[in-house]
Amino acid sequence: MGCAGLSLAVHMIRSGKFSNKKILLIDKEKKEKNDRTWCFWETGKGAFEEVVYRRWDNAWFHADHFSELLDLSPYQYKMIRGIDYYTFCLDIIKAETGFDIVYAPVEEFQHHQDSASVRAGGVTYQANFIFNSILLDLPQVRNGKYYLLQHFKGWIIETENDCFTPDEATLMDFRPSQEYGTTFVYVMPFSPKSALVEYTLFSTSLLSEEKYTAGLNEYLSAYLNISQYKVVEEEFGIIPMTNHRFKTSEGRIINLGTAGGQTKASSGYTYRFIQKNSVNIVESLIKYGDPFHIKNRGKKRFDWYDSVLLNILNYKKLEGSFIFRQLFKKNRPEVILKFLDNETSIAEEFRLLNTLPQWPFMKAGVAEFFK
Ligand SMILES: Cc1cc2nc3c(=O)[nH]c(=O)nc-3n(C[C@H](O)[C@H](O)[C@H](O)COP(=O)(O)OP(=O)(O)OC[C@H]3O[C@@H](n4cnc5c(N)ncnc54)[C@H](O)[C@@H]3O)c2cc1C
């Protein structure tokens, strides 16, 4: 009942083709906390437009010696609060007679010839298919693969004075110190007096609690000129940035979300990939009676681009802040966002990659190609 499980359930219900099925949802916890916010970009209305909390047409990009307010059209940058998404999806699901919900910890999965089973809270359930979004074991990352972490601490703050321009978000601000790895802050303003400010790093290890707090404080005072504020909500997250290939299925157990490899290795963005995957699974179920006919799964060249960037970041061949600055300085935001969505054409990718330093990218590209 996280992002991917609820998305799939809602897409199934909306298709109207599963009303004769019995579907069980299992989660270890009731989804009653605002445990995360999802930011993503899309054109037009999305599948969960009803719960979009804020949207922005313009966003700043900052790095040393380069600052620009980007016009994101035809995309909008959107934000969904976890709690709104959970409540919205569960209301739709609870109104369906074919769905049951069990709150219990999942202990084990098993796949059989024509079915799969899951043990949760000591009870075993058997089904035609299981859609799993739980990483029961951390992946064993083999030699030649990278496993960086995107880790972040965010505060929703309220200020006494007007400090924010509500229709201008900050997508990435690389001006803070880069001493602990690729570091940026993003700012999502809700009103002139309130915003989500998130201190984010791409690196191999986590920081101590105080360092995230110091990073946030430093940013608020040095770049936003804010000294008086109240923290009203806090979030902390770790997203794997890895070119490890997560299993997409094992027999009749189909892995979803981060556990199914839906997190983009070079950016950590997952939400939009989850939504696209749900649409594909539902289409496959309706057309073929199974979830295995997924189109677009193999746009292999995007995996390669991701590996190349991870290679460069991992071996510190170039600074992440420098790479993103080049991208945003020399390309239209529309093309960058499309590229990060794995949706560009080869011609667009060629032009975009040409704006990056060629020698380190070529060397990393060849190394990753032959792995
Ligand atoms: C704080 C945070 C912020 C993020 N922000 C963004 C963002 O802005 N944009 C973006 O694209 N991505 C973002 N991500 C990455 C990604 O989109 C989210 O992690 C997303 O929730 C992944 O969806 P999921 O379904 O794979 O996993 P989850 O949403 O984590 O769902 C997994 C579910 O499994 C349940 N579960 C876990 N273990 C067990 C068990 N043993 N038994 C039973 N149930 C269990 C959990 O309770 C949870 O409900 C963020 C991640 C975090 C952690």
Strand order of the largest sheet: 5-4-13-14-15-12-16
User: Regions with pLDDT < 50 over 5+ consecutive residues?
Assistant: none
Q: What is the number of beta strands?
A: 18
Which hetero compounds are present in the coordinates? flavin-adenine dinucleotide
Shape category: globular
How many domain regions?
3
Order of helices and strands: HEEEEEEHEEEEEEEEEHEEEHHHHHH
* Helix content estimate: 25-40%
How much strand? 25-35%
Distance N terminus to C terminus?
Answer: 36 Å
- Summing up helix and strand content along with how strands pair, one would put the structural category as alpha+beta
**Oligomeric grouping of the chains:** single chain
CATH superfamily of the largest domain: FAD/NAD(P)-binding domain
Largest sheet, if any?
Answer: 7 strands, mixed
What would the CATH topology of the largest domain be? FAD/NAD(P)-binding domain
CATH class of the largest domain: Alpha Beta
Query: What value does the average pLDDT take?
Result: 95
Q: Enumerate how many helices there are, as a single number.
A: 9
CATH architecture of the largest domain: 3-Layer(bba) Sandwich
Cα-atom Rg, whole angstroms?
A: 21 Å
Task: Give the helices and strands, then pairings.
Blueprint: H1 3-15, E1 23-27, E2 37-43, E3 52-56, E4 58-63, E5 66-71, E6 75-81, H2 82-94, E7 99-103, E8 106-111, E9 116-120, E10 123-127, E11 130-132, E12 147-159, E13 168-173, E14 182-191, E15 194-203, H3 209-222, E16 229-242, E17 249-250, E18 253-255, H4 271-288, H5 300-314, H6 320-330, H7 333-340, H8 346-353, H9 358-369
Parallel strand pairs: 1-7, 4-13, 11-18
Antiparallel strand pairs: 2-6, 3-6, 4-5, 8-9, 9-10, 12-15, 12-16, 13-14, 14-15, 17-18
The structure holds flavin-adenine dinucleotide.
Flavin-adenine dinucleotide binds at residues 1-5, 26-29, 36, 38-40, 105-106, 133-134, 235, 237, 239, 257-259, 269-271, 274.
